[in-house]
Prior knowledge:
InterPro entries: SecD/SecF_arch_bac, SecD/SecF_bac, SecD_SecF_C, SecF_bac. This protein is an alpha+beta fold. 72% of the residues lie in helices and 10% in strands. The protein is built from nine helices and four strands. The chain has a four-stranded antiparallel beta sheet with strand order 2-3-1-4. The longest helix is centred in the last third of the chain and has 38 residues, at 246-283.
Amino acid sequence: MNWMKHLPIYFLISAMVVIPGTYSLIRYGLKSSIEFTGGSRLTLVTVKSSPEDVLQAFIDYSPILENSENNSLTIKSKEISQENTQKIIDGLKKENPDVKLSDFETIGPALGQETIKKTGNALIVASVLLLLYISFAFKQLKYGICAVLAMFHDSVVLLGSFSLLGHFRGVEVDLLFVTAVLTILSFSVHDTIVVYDRIRELSHKNKNVDFVSLVNQAVTETMTRSLNNSLTIIFMLLALFLMGGETTKYFSLALLIGTVTGTYSSTFTAAPLLVIWNKLSRRN
């Protein structure tokens, strides 16, 4: 099958996902958890008062209700000491005699900013190392650049998706999300290398075949393996997202989105980028 004759369609599909996500990232950004912004998160159990009344008690600390179920409330607020939290809880006991604090965590703004800095540095270092490694392994810079561009494609899709989820559904990104992003970068490049390695093998065996035909053959030969490998991961992550706990729900969703887009980009972004590079270099 001549996969590479549909290049405009592949890039159009990517644009339909990347453009809305990029717009959302620019306009709304990501809804960060307290690991990045700093603040306090606390959970109250055995609460009889309405969530509005409880939030009013914490009004000096700009409280936000994160979760409310089964007489349990999870609140995120500006940084508050555990001593002041207990004083507020003591005030709530007039109407909620059994109320108590079950979870409490505080992260200072400085630590939150340090986490953001380290996350950005990790992404930059990973990208540079992957660029250098792939370029060295394939003895051509174009392989490294195209692989990293496909990786950035996957990153923008994932970040844009969570920007939209944060704006419309209030989904926050935390350190688990950072873990998911770094994991997906690795998966995306791994799948891309499989395709690129097959292109290199075929180019050594078929000296007189044009580059587009080599890419088509490589994509055809690796397609089944890539799909089978990715579907086993996708089914597991889908089950984890649907039936897993609240803590890992959006972590598994991030991995799921990344796996799908990584599988797509390895064949329909990374390989087409090589074809375009080859055409441009031949014109020059």
